[in-house]
Amino acid sequence: MPVEERSAPARMAPPSRFGDKAFEWLTLGMALVVILLVFLIGWQLARGSSLAIQKFGFHFLVTSTWDPVAEQFGALPFIYGTLVSSLIALIIAVPLSIATAVFLTELAPLWIRQPLVSLIEMLAAIPSVILGLWGIFVMIPWLRDYPFPVLKKAFGWTPLFTGPIYGPSMLAGGIIIAIMILPIIISVSREILRSVPNLQREAAYALGATRWEVTRIAVLSYAKKGLFGAVILGLGRALGETMAVTMVIGNTPQIAASLFKPGYTLASVIANEFTEATSDLYLQALFELGLVLFGVTILVNLLAQLLLKTITAKSATRAVQ
């Protein structure tokens, strides 16, 4: 009896909440560190480009002149090159990536699935400079001799495929970026498709759907939000890609409608000219290019999130109706 009396208060004591609170504050601190890091990067870039911001102001974003000798700097050709090359990469990579992920998840036999996954992971591990060398010595000569003349002959009536074919060009830069973002989008999309509950597939099959209808309605429709997120991850990689693009895009600060013309990107000009910056204004103009790239990346991601919310809201409205 005395033993029971001594153990009763111990059983009635409230559990300690210290562990839960400590874990909550620890994870909150880690999340705040990430946010702080983003603000610190932006602040440092703004601080390093203060002189260029004061001298050029908003005109830096809408001026095409890039003349280090005369100390006249404008970022418009580089913004154009970054956005166009990334758009080309997405147009090429997104259908290939999602189709590959669907095949690996829904259609591929087991004996071929793992070898293909391993090859895709190996592609992601190839250094950027190696892909750039491959692009210079293999991809560009092949593009110049075969696909580019075909495109010019078939679509030369459009401004996108006119003019002489040099080899290093905006289109070549977009293709090399597409190759680099393929494994990222494939891997993320594959994991998203694998997370679709099997009940979705079984219910569609029970209603008499074909394999294509099951994939389209039960799998892709269910996973479209996650697939869109995978595309955004690939876009983030495309916007900031440097070495491989620098080696194949031509590095000419111009705005041209033809994809056969050389171009330049924000990341490429920073990598090419940072060591050549001999004056404070030149160096700070390059810092401002970094700030512009930072802002473009954030803006594109925000617009993508807004588009995703709009698509989700429309889908929910249709489901209610």
The dominant shape is globular
The percent of residues in helical segments reads over 70%
- The count of DSSP E runs of length 2 or more, i.e. the number of strands, is 2
Q: Which blocks of ≥5 consecutive residues have pLDDT under 50?
A: none
Mean pLDDT: 89
> SS-based structural class?
mainly alpha
Q: Give Rg in angstroms.
A: 26 Å
H and E order: HHHHEEHHHHHHHHHH
Largest beta sheet: strand ordering: 1-2
Described by strand count, sense and barrel closure, the largest sheet is: 2 strands, antiparallel
Figure out the total of helices.
14
Distance between the termini: 67 Å
Percentage of residues in strands: under 5%
What layout of secondary structure does this protein have?
Layout: H1 2-12, H2 18-48, H3 50-56, H4 59-62, E1 66-67, E2 72-73, H5 76-107, H6 110-125, H7 128-145, H8 147-155, H9 170-194, H10 198-206, H11 211-240, H12 243-248, H13 266-273, H14 280-320
Structure notes:
- This protein is an all-alpha fold.
- The protein is built from 14 helices and two strands, in the order H-H-H-H-E-E-H-H-H-H-H-H-H-H-H-H.
Task: Quickly describe the structure.
With 321 residues, the chain is mainly alpha-helical.
